[in-house]
Amino acid sequence: MCGDGQCTAGCETYGNCSKDCPVVCGDGACSTGENPSNCKEDCCGTCGVGKCVGYACGEGDPTSSGWTR
Fold first, then answer.
1. Three-class SS state of 42
2. Residue pLDDT, tens place only, 7-41
3. CB 43 within 8 A of CB 35
4. CA–CA separation, 50 vs 38, rounded Å?
5. Cα–Cα distance measured from residue 48 to residue 54, given in angstroms and rounded to the nearest whole number
6. pLDDT for residue 62
7. Is the dihedral of CA 25, 31, 33, 38 positive or negative?
8. Is 23 helix (H, G, I), strand (E, B) or coil?
9. What is d(CA 24, CA 38) in angstroms, rounded to the nearest whole number?
10. Confidence band (pLDDT; 50, 70, 90) for 64?
11. C-alpha to C-alpha distance for 41 and 68, rounded to whole angstroms
12. For residue 59, what pLDDT is reported?
């Protein structure tokens, strides 16, 4: 039940009950409030997943010399 102070697994999430379920960086989900700048481990993914996420994840400038696909 949202508001009881416990984040009930399988029922409550940050999205439907932020009172009980705060955003937790490192939980494997890029949640509302997280982004590549403040939570790289959840929002950057890994190389080869077909998703280019940009400088905040340590990706280089594709216009610079030395950048390869």
1. helix
2. 998 898 878 898 998 888 888 888 878 888 888 88
3. yes
4. 21
5. 14
6. 60
7. positive
8. coil
9. 11
10. low
11. 23
12. 73
